[in-house]
Amino acid sequence: MRTFRGPILAVFLLVIGAVAQAGFKEASNAYKSGNYPVALNEFKRLAANGDASAQFNLGLMYANGHGVSQDFQEAMVWYRKAAEQGNAAAQINLGWIYAQGQVVTRDFEQALAWYRKAADQGDAGAQLNVGWMYALGQAVPQDYRQAVAWYRKAAEQGSASAQYNLGLMYVNGHGVPTDLVQAHKWFDLAVAKGNEDVQQNRYAVEAKMSREQILRAQSLARDWLAKHK
Fold first, then answer.
1. At what angle do helices 36-48 and 22-32 cross, to 10 degrees?
2. What is the pLDDT of residues 5-53, one digit of tens each?
């Protein structure tokens, strides 16, 4: 049976804020087309004026070495500026840097603190990461019930990794009673999101289930999908 998945890093170009700025659109389009010099200059201008989305994207460009020499220290500077303004993606990446000990001394307490800020905003990736830390006992005493609670929050939002991890919790009876029907349901949903490698675990669970249990699990998965269209 494969182990848990996590933590994740926000690696996407940030969505434009509620008030879309022409400069931000220009920078975003330039980035997507691979015109990194134009994107970099525009993100720098916006970031210097305090735009949190631009600050995150500027950090992302430094982290990936897009249009600049790769510089995780500089990426962290811009992630922090955005994170302190409440940008969830920046909070996740800042937490990830602390969790990995990348350009800073590894600090799980700081990692958890930043993940929690994003998770409390409803970010599914951050919720997955918080669950991961509770499952492993990083910065907090190991607490499978808390892990399940956070995995469930993310899973209900459609996070395939959280659905997979929640399924494993049901298989192992960690934080919840062992329940192969529920495990199969969450594995089904993870596979439906495109995580084909989860099938190995689903097959392993099916080998321990009756035909009626499998049909019940599949029905629960269909019901969940119908409610979350």
1. 150
2. 555 555 555 544 433 466 788 888 888 889 999 999 999 999 999 999 9
Where along the chain do its domains lie?
1-142, 144-229
In the chain, pLDDT over 70 holds for what percent of residues? 90
Q: Which residue has the tokens 């989305």?
A: 53
- 150 Cβ contact list (under 8 Å, min separation 6): 119, 127, 128, 130, 131, 134
Dihedral (C-alpha) 22, 25, 26, 30: value to the nearest 10 degrees? 180
Query: What pTM did the predictor assign?
Result: 0.89
Classify 11 as helix, strand or coil. coil
Q: Which sign does the torsion angle of CA 133, 138, 140, 141 carry? A: positive
Tokens 């329940």 -> residue = 179
Contact between 82 and 55 under an 8 Å Cβ cutoff? The reply is yes
Domains 1-142 and 144-229 are alike in CATH topology:
yes
Cα torsion angle, 148, 98, 60, 117, sign: positive
CATH class of 144-229: mainly alpha
CATH superfamily of 1-142: Tetratricopeptide repeat domain (1.25.40.10)
Sign for the pseudo-dihedral over CA of 142, 198, 171, 213: positive
